[in-house]
Amino acid sequence: MTKLPARMAAASAAVVLAAAGIASCGSDTKATGNGGDDGAKRYKISLIVGLKGDDFYGSLACGARQAADKLGAEVDVQGPNRWDPSEQIPVLNSVIASRPDAILIAPVDDTALQTPLEQAAAQGIKVVLVDTNVKDPAFAAARVTSNDELAGEKAAEEVIRLTGGKGSVVTVNTQPGVSTVEARVRGFEKRLKQESAIEYVGEKFAGDDAAKASSVVTSTLAAHPDLAAVFATNTLTGQGAATGIKNAHKSGAIKLVGFDANPSGVQAIEDGAAQGQVVLQPLDIGFQGVTQAVNALSDKQVEKVTLTGSLVATKENLRTPEVQKYLYQESCTGG
Fold first, then answer.
1. Which of 221, 174, 169, 173 minimizes the C-alpha distance to 193?
2. I need a surface site. Which of 36, 135, 142, 196 has the fewest CB within 10 A?
3. At what angle do helices 235-247 and 210-223 cross, to 10 degrees?
4. Residue 238: CATH number of its domain
5. Residue range of the domain that includes 175
6. Based on the domain organization, do 187 and 258 belong to the same domain?
7. Tens-place pLDDT, residues 83-123
């Protein structure tokens, strides 16, 4: 999702921990503000996720609906069946034709979605980029995304802790051109380079293909028998890496830190297939995305760049309320 240039981590970017303002996914907060009893317009907002049926985007949609309930807006959620610009662009074009007041979108490609989104903005539709980015987001009313670079640094910290700062480490990534995973790798590599006893053998691409990710682990282990840890940048690379480690009879010996707070990632921690999963906060991304869209539509102050947080889930903290709150789910509880 994970998902293209570096995320804009300018000093002016707000690091938002929106948890305090968010209730459970099934919030039944009554509409106030735009859609209250004052007769103000009830804004129509379309959320286009990166992948339909994905738990991360399910949680993001939950946050969006919570904000819509609070602010009196209406949110519909759409998305492609595959992580592919050729599938997302027709969805976007259909949404543009329906003339919503605002579009929240997680672009699946930083280049292919650039022109269609600029065209939407040119028609007076407020565009808020959520989760992922495009090459030049100048047209966007706002961007709300995880601080993926910092999350990558947290993944590196966990790898260092698990390995004692020794041995070879490999990154299994998806594909070039996905802003989120590029930032994760950038943060991971930056922190790992500070450890002189770790040999970083680089970044290997597997696409969104678990079988290829498994093969990457197999080939890396053959070239580096001292492989101590694997960093996987999303759900499928994590699943494939776990399979490759298992096939080599190295489960637990080779540490795996991924980016998967879906049920599959939780199960991997419980089974010992993974030792850590970086948990992003899509609930907060959705909430803040709708909030900024409504602010833009009602001529209120807009936070141009909002960065949300992350944490690392392990077997030791998996059941804590802080972690449980942010584990991804496809549908809102009670909603």
1. 169
2. 196
3. 50
4. 3.40.50.2300
5. 148-280
6. yes
7. 999 999 999 999 999 999 999 999 999 999 999 999 999 99
